[in-house]
Amino acid sequence: MSQNPPNLRPDIAPRAQIRDEARPGQPTIGMVSLGCPKALVDSERILTRLRAEGYAISPDYSGADAVIVNTCGFLDSAKAESLEAIGEALNENGRVIVTGCLGAEPEYITGHHPKVLAVTGPHQYEQVLDAVHGAVPPSPDPFIDLLPASGVSLTPRHYSYLKISEGCNHKCKFCIIPDMRGRLVSRPAHAIVREAEKLVENGVKELLVISQDTSAYGVDIKHAEERGHRAHITDLARDLGSLGAWVRLHYVYPYPHVRNLIPLMAERLILPYLDIPFQHAHPDTLKRMARPAAAAKTLDEINAWRDVCPDITLRSTFIVGYPGETEAEFQTLLDWLDEAQLDRVGCFQYENVDGARSNELPDHVPDEIKQDRWERFMEKAQAISEAKLAAKVGKTLEAIVDDIDEDGIASCRTWADAPEIDGNLFIDEGTGDLSVGDIVKVEVDEAGDYDLWGKLSV
């Protein structure tokens, strides 16, 4: 079986950052959060509830009374990683509760690790809490353990993921997310806006809007309006954009109504950035995938978006080596990429996933051909990225500071860069007065394949 290494997978969230210290005698829970940013949000919600009940949160196994492993089941390689994490937690701690997407297959987990204390599925918060209570009873201090003003965050303090819905109504043949997480369930718009307001009040400078299908937000509740907020992605984007933070949209399907978001980007109400999972370009491949898109129309849409907002950044992910993909179909994808000129591109090699309908398709592509096509695709994507970044030399860009190392080099991101998955803008001098989370103006003086270098603008 071919396995994509982590840097080829689209299901990787930023590494969880846990900041907490236990008081003497306080029950402590460890957390291992795997999978996509949506799973990271689930982990944050679980830990927020646990901390409010008097538990401390541990960043390692040894200091915990029990460990929660939030798993991923997107690809076989992700499943293998989840099983490895569970086994490591059992070896290091011995008391393990499993949740997340792979938890939708409890027999699969217990077949490999029969000693786990409990297995729950994705976003089953109450069941996770029940399992924790059974393993490690809470012992709250009424004078200390009050509901925190802000929830537990597993990302740096200056940005936060904002999940607007669960599940998905699509039936893509390579994906089992709807089987694990169910059909689309949208959150009320007023609840999302309130959460965003609290995040911004607590210092968050960037809101990363996520779901399985952001464009479909509110369809299941007929775009209901409640407490002055309508459950439609355009209205929600406008509401979030009024809070003063950067707003970045992920997992947007190119439905026609997406064009209504582009004027908000041109007005700088939200970031001029769209993360759209095109997956392929050849119509026959897309049909075998059962994807809700057609390549010819997406090129027209891209051109229309750029007419309204010329500096829009477009990121996408693609699959090469999908069953039945011919050399001609792959060449169509390369030609499409040449024409589309996407700014940020990820690509992974097709893998069978237990339960996916694509497993039964004929004409699976040999591993060596998948690897060859991936290399050719990434070579073209890299050349496009290099040219686009070279065009930014001499320009002054707004950037947010993510990190400052011991040598004083600041790692930043521009509007065109999402955390962990896109590039960086580095500042290597004059950073003494900068702090993580600052938003600064940077004059770009050097460009690489995926990253930029510059100096603070005076």
UniProtKB/TrEMBL annotation:
Highest taxon, organism lineage: Bacteria
Entry-linked SUPFAM superfamilies: Radical SAM enzymes (SSF102114)
Cofactor(s) demanded: [4Fe-4S] cluster
GO BP field: tRNA modification
Residues that, per the record, bind [4Fe-4S] cluster 2: C168, C172, C175
Record-linked NCBIfam families: 30S ribosomal protein S12 methylthiotransferase RimO, MiaB/RimO family radical SAM methylthiotransferase
Catalysed transformations (reactions): L-aspartate(89)-[ribosomal protein uS12]-hydrogen + (sulfur carrier)-SH + AH2 + 2 S-adenosyl-L-methionine = 3-methylsulfanyl-L-aspartate(89)-[ribosomal protein uS12]-hydrogen + (sulfur carrier)-H + 5'-deoxyadenosine + L-methionine + A + S-adenosyl-L-homocysteine + 2 H(+)
Keyword annotations of the record: 4Fe-4S, Cytoplasm, Iron, Iron-sulfur, Metal-binding, Ribonucleoprotein, Ribosomal protein, S-adenosyl-L-methionine, Transferase
Record function comment: Catalyzes the methylthiolation of an aspartic acid residue of ribosomal protein uS12.
Any one GO molecular-function label of the UniProt entry: 4 iron, 4 sulfur cluster binding
Source organism of the structure: Donghicola eburneus
Main location: cytoplasm
Protein name listed in UniProt: Ribosomal protein uS12 methylthiotransferase RimO
Gene: rimO
Subcellular location: Cytoplasm
Domain Radical SAM core: 154-387
EC class name: transferase
